[in-house]
Amino acid sequence: MKKFLFVPLLLVVAVAGVLFTSLGQKALLIPVAESILAKKLPGHKIRFATLDPGLGSFRAAGRVDDQIAFEVSGPVSWLAGPRLDLHYTIDAPSYTLRGRRYRLDLAIRGALRGTPGDLNVTGAGRGFGGPIDYRTLLRGERIVDTHVRAEGLKLAGLLALAGTGGVAAGRLDVVADLPQVDPRHPEGRVDLHVRNGMLLAKGLAPYGVALPENLPFRFDATLRAVGRLFKGDARFASELLSLHLPDLAADAGLRVFKSSYMVRIPELSRLAVLTHAPLRGTLVVRGKGYYDRRDGRMQLLADTPSLGGDLRAFLDGKRLKVRLRRISIPRVLSMLSQPRYVASGTLDGTVVSSNIRSLALDYDLHAAGSWNSKALAKLAPNLPIGGPFHLDSKGKTTDGTLAFDAVYRDTRSRIRLEEGRFVTASGSLEAKYRIDVPDLHSLAPTLHGAFALAGKVLHGPGGTRVSGSSSSLGGSARFALAGKRLEVDLQNVRPDKLLAIAGQEPWFAGGALDLKLRLSDLAEKKGTVSYRLASRLRGAVLKRHISTATGEDLPLQSRGEGALDGVKLSAKAEASLPKMRLELPKIVYRFASGSLQTPYTLAVSDLGALRPLSGKRYRGPFHVGGTIAYAKTLRVSGNGKEWGGTFDFRLAGNRLRAGARGIRIEKLLYALGDPALLEGRIESAAFGYDTAARKGKLSATARSLRFVQSPFTQAASLVLGRDLSREIFRTAKLDGVIVRDLLTFDFDSRSKNLRVWIDKGKLDTAHSRIDTKVRIDHHGKVYGFQVKGDLSHPLVRPLMTDALKSRIGHEIKKHKLDKKLKKVIPKGLRKALPGLF
User: Fold this and answer.
1) Contact between 429 and 458 (Cβ < 8 Å)
2) pTM over 0.70
3) How far apart are the first and last CA of the chain?
């Protein structure tokens, strides 16, 4: 605007110079005037449509850059230098700059009065969408007094002409009162206020600022002329951050600026749209700044109390220096929305860059603290790190390449990066690494000895390669990752050590594992895998997962192979324990859903060999086949022919349902390791059980049931006067409720001559102990027996019933024992047993 105001004045001066020289011919007037103006206003093109000087007047009209129309006319006195009393107009609906058209709506009407060395300029009108009013005093080409009022100017248009168009919108109010603009003694003030400010997401995108939507903001600034400087205060505020410049200072030419500042981000989580990282908390940055717009040089001094300790940064043009003293690592983790893996710790060091644009830097960083064991355990159990730790790293850039190394150490492990190289131009990286665990006992109490893994990391335009090897696992372990391809080879590796390094439970004790994995596309999960394992299942771990396990180790052998096609793993596997073989011939595991399905067959030649799992001395063979499926819930179904009949079952989560038909009771009792108390055939049986609550129900019916010789049958036969073990019970029924290890049951059986039943009998299945009362009805005569103790040889005691009293009395009289008994049995006792005496 300032340059455009000079057009009428320069025009008069130029014409005057032409009129009083030998070039005063009218044919040369316009070209010479345009040439003079071109030198006075470089970068702009002046074209006259009219140029009409007279002895007492002046009139001219034209365009600047073919876009801004001007017209000036009025009386002029040429004697003793020109004295002007001119009126001018400036009109520009729009303006095209660097190929883009901007709407100005500029329409100014004003006057120029005085001499070129002492000229009063006034003007009023509209521009950039708002009213503009100004008056100023020009002495030569220098402004010495000016007053400006502008209200509601379109900020977007002003920024566009400044070369930063599209970044913000709003309405700008300007009030400037500068009665003295002398650089040596300026006076006055300037007030700026932005109404309805809006940062524009689309316009900021080319500057690397990715706002999801437009962001409202507020801006206010005041500049006062103090001595040779302008001093003031400026504030910018939005919901993302606020910036305060409390002591802004600039020279009179507004070329050099400096100020202290404070940036406050009330909630870092709102910056996720810019940082693309889940930050949180409050950040305050304060310091001092310097900017020279003549050469673009900037200096910034910054520090922040938000990270604990002392962080200071100094930016001088391209140079940057950062100093860190006791920065809180937990605070940094919290700000990065990370779990508090470090319970306490600090970061110290320096970062120096001679050219931040080329990433030329040197750094020296040191961290020390203590890990949070609970947080690490949630991340992965048995990580090879823990306790107090130290981390040291140094790096230096030379010719665009950063050379670095780093050493981490704690009570469990030591990790070193050596000969690191990072090339800034290509982004390529290479380094050697080594991981040392001095004693595996720190990871698992069952392990001893050291572990080491060493290899290389390479990253460049051709992709990433990571390789490594170790001989610390009892054999050879190698892997290589190249782009999409991954190869893993394990030979004679101890599986217990491998699980410890992987942070898994120590399922295995010793042994050897061979594994070959070939993935042609790691991301797409395509390739092949095969393995062979010989080890022992650790009894202590089995006992934690299987309540009946005894804690003994179990020898295990297993092998398998499979193929990955990107959608699923198709495999087959088999496993063998002593006298047991499990085959999984067609495993299908789907990656997307995490579901698994396979048929299976289980063959056990002697159930007794599984005592470390069952806790019982089961006997005999067992065979079953079915399917295993998992889709958030484990489902197992199976059936088989065993013990002279058939059985089937289905497990869905914690719910177990089972059934049996035709099974010989004596064979089942033998397999369960229980005494053969009964013979017969189960007609049908149903069993329901909740494995989590350890509760269930049992019902069964049987035919042709016979009680085998036992302490119970011997006692019953003596009382009944007939051999109970020879009775064939046509029907029998059992109903029971299981709560943990206790079976409470009702039993009812009938033969031609007898009925035998039990109400609320109790059987401790964990210890094979019984506590029940057995009733026997023999043609209307009811006898009772208390059966209690170990199931194989319980204590059987007859209960006194009317039938038993009658039976005893009959025997006494039959053998004429009443007179003899009266002599030895007290009278009181004889009265208590009147049926016998």
Assistant:
1) yes
2) no
3) 141
